[in-house]
Structure formats: structure tokens, C-alpha cells
């Protein structure tokens, strides 16, 4: 049997390469709306973050998520990320 290639992505906060399914995708839609994409399949420009509160805080502090998406990320997105990480962890 062939081994499948595992897609890797880089966390915009800690710059660590991880498997795509381990990371959380944040998307800027073509209309400019920013939201968390739990399916990982929505259309738009995406950026990935580790499922870790430290990475969420670092991304907010450095502005790396806003830089990657080329738009200001509202605080509600960070609140949604933190709420989701607590329920999973």
C-alpha cells in the first residue's frame, strides 16, 4: 500500500510546522469577513494557528494573524479561538 502524503502547515504565531489537521484555520472571506474555519475547507485566504492559548495570545500581540490575512482581525475571533481551545483541551 502507498503511504499518503500528510499536508503540513506553519503556525503563524510560533512558526512551527505541524500536520494540517492539528491546526486551526482562520479565514478571510472574499468579502473581507474574518472567521474561524473548523472544517478547513471554506474559500478565502487562510492562516493557521496551533490549538494552544499561548499561540493565540502571541498572534494577537505580534499581529501576525492580521499580517497573514492582510486585514485587521477583530477581538471576537480571538475570543472564539480561546473558547474553542478550552472546550477541546
From TrEMBL:
Domain YlxR stretches: 9-83
Superkingdom, taxonomy of origin: Bacteria
UniProt-listed Gene3D superfamilies: YlxR-like
Coiled-coil regions listed in the entry: none
Pfam family, one: YlxR
InterPro entries listed in its UniProt record: YlxR, YlxR-like_sf, YlxR_dom
NCBIfam families (alphabetical): RNA_bind_RnpM
Protein name in UniProt: YlxR domain-containing protein
Amino acid at each position: 500500500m502507498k503511504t499518503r502524503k500528510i499536508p503540513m502547515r506553519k503556525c503563524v504565531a510560533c512558526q512551527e510546522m505541524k500536520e494540517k489537521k492539528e491546526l486551526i484555520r482562520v479565514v478571510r472571506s472574499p468579502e473581507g469577513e474574518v472567521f474561524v474555519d473548523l472544517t478547513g475547507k471554506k474559500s478565502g485566504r487562510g492562516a493557521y494557528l496551533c490549538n494552544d492559548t499561548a499561540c493565540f495570545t502571541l498572534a494577537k500581540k505580534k499581529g501576525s494573524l492580521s499580517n497573514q490575512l492582510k486585514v485587521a482581525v477583530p477581538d471576537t475571533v480571538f475570543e472564539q479561538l480561546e473558547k474553542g481551545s478550552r472546550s477541546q483541551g
